[in-house]
Amino acid sequence: MILRIDHVSLAVKNYEKAVEFFSKILGAIPQTHGRDTNLQYYWEIFKLGDLSRLEIISPTGKESFLKNFFKKKEGGIHHLTLQTPDIEKMRVFLEMNNIPYFRQATYSDAWKEIFIHPKDAFGVLLQIAEFRPNDWLAPSSKIPEGGKWTVKRHNDDHILSFSHPGGGIIHLSMKKEEINKLIQDLKNLVE
Asked: DSSP string spanning 7-48?
C-alpha cells in the first residue's frame, strides 16, 4: 500500500533562514513551491542528493494551521509524506483496520491525500498521498520525457543516470571496465 517515503516536512517560523541553511550548508536544491491561502502557509520542496526530498513549510498569516504547532516549539518535523499508488484503496484499508484518518482532500489528479493523527501513528503526523512524483520536481531533476536513462562521459568516468519511479534521477559513476562488464551482462541477459 505504501510505495515509499516521499519527503519529510519541516515547519519553520523563519523561512528565509531555513532555506539559507538547507540550501547553502546542506546543498538542498529547490524543486517546486506553493501557497495555501486558506490554511495560510507557504511550502517548498527541495531535493537533497539523488532521491531524498525535504519540504519546508512556514506560516503566512496569524491564523495559519501551523499556529498550534508553534505553541509548543520553535519548529521541527511537522509530518512525513508517504506515497501510495491508490488513495482510495488505502482509505478502505485503514477503515478495515480501524485506523482513523482525517482531512481527505483531492486536488485534481495531481494530488490526493489523507492524514493520520500523531496519536494514532506513534507520535508522527502521517500524510498519505497519491500523486505522480515527477510532477513535483524541477526539470533538471528529471530524465527527459520518454527516456529512462542517459549516459554521459566525465573525464575518465562514465555517468549512467536512471529515472527512478519515485521521481528523480539516480546517478552511477562507472569506470570503462565496469561499463564493459555491464554491456556483457546485458548481452547475456537478452540472448
From this structure: EEEEEES-HHHHHHIIIIIT--EEEEEEEETTTTEEEEEEEE
pLDDT grade, residue 62 (50/70/90)? very high
Residues paired with residue 48 on neighbouring β-strands, in sequence order: 52
Q: Which residues contact 40 (CB under 8 A, 6 or more apart)?
A: 59, 60, 61, 62, 63, 64, 65
155 in the Ramachandran plot: left (φ > 0), alpha (ψ -120 to 50) or beta? left
Considering the entire predicted model, what is its pTM? 0.86
Domains and CATH numbers, the chain: 4-136 (3.10.180.10), 142-190 (no CATH)
Rg over CA atoms, the chain? 20
Q: Are 32 and 57 in contact (CB under 8 A)?
A: no
